[in-house]
Amino acid sequence: MPEANPEALAFLLSRRSRPAKTLTTPVPSREELAPILEAGLRAPDHGKLEPWRLIVIEGRAVMDRLATLAQTRGEALGLDDEKIGKGRGQFDMGNLAVVVVESPVIAEKVPEIEQTYSAGAVCLQLLNAALAAGWGANWLSGWVSHDRDFLTEGLRLSPHERIAGIIHIGTEKSAPPERPRPDMEKKVTWVSR
Predict the structure, then answer these.
(1) Total tally of structural domains belonging to the chain
(2) Tens place of pLDDT for every residue, the chain, 193 residues?
(3) For the stretch 125-156, what's the b/e string if a residue is b when 16 or more beta carbons lie within 10 angstroms of its beta carbon?
(4) What are the residues facing 170 on neighbouring strands?
(5) Exposed, middle or buried by CB within 10 Å (0-12, 13-18, 19+), for 26?
(6) For residue 13, is it within any domain?
(7) What's the CA gap between 29 and 139, in Å, rounded?
(8) What DSSP letter does each residue of 137-148 carry, written as one string?
């Protein structure tokens, strides 16, 4: 019989993201963030390709620069004010974020889609590790994550790289109400033969 970890299972059964707008200071120090980053990097990785990397955004100056760039890019793209506001909002409100960059590797035995899944797994590992460490955390993306000029100018991503997610981490100032969860009867199919 395998050895159970009921505390870990209880955490996973009760975990929930915290809205980014409810996160404030203080944020984790570099020392407090280190085990969260380490947990993120333990995500499933077929072929041990490490087809991702992390960019830690810390400090108001960097957040303000990215918010301004989101505003500029949104206007250049002709987006409406609401969409521009959402794009810059995560940086206006943010105090610490970890950008998970999908950086695919050419590998004959590991299709790029599996590398994309691995980058998504890094996002979830970071999110859950931050929550388990007692911080509030939220996984965001939005149009800025898919705008090549924002990626190049704002985060210096290479042409083959893209954002899998932006994990905001901080102190939770208010807890959201529990939301309805998927109905297992509707979402699970059992195949026995």
Answers:
(1) 1
(2) 889 999 999 999 999 888 899 999 999 999 999 999 999 999 999 999 999 999 999 999 999 999 999 999 999 999 999 999 999 999 999 999 999 999 999 999 999 999 999 999 999 999 999 999 999 999 999 999 999 999 999 999 999 999 999 999 999 988 778 889 999 999 999 999 9
(3) bbbbbbbbeebbbbbbebbbbebeebbeebbe
(4) 136
(5) exposed
(6) no
(7) 19
(8) EEEE--GGGG-H
Rounded to whole angstroms, the Cα distance separating 3 from 52 reads 31
Backbone angles phi, psi at 107, to 5 degrees: -150, 120
CB-side neighbour CA atoms (13 Å) of 154: 30
**pTM of this structure:** 0.94
Domain for residue 34, yes or no? yes
Q: What is the CATH number of the domain that holds 90?
A: 3.40.109.10
What's the domain range around 32?
18-173
- State the CB neighbour count (10 A cutoff) for residue 6: 7
186 is a domain residue: no
55 near 101, Cβ under 8 Å?
Answer: yes
User: Which secondary-structure segment (H or E) carries 56?
Assistant: strand 52-58
Q: Does residue 44 lie in a domain region?
A: yes
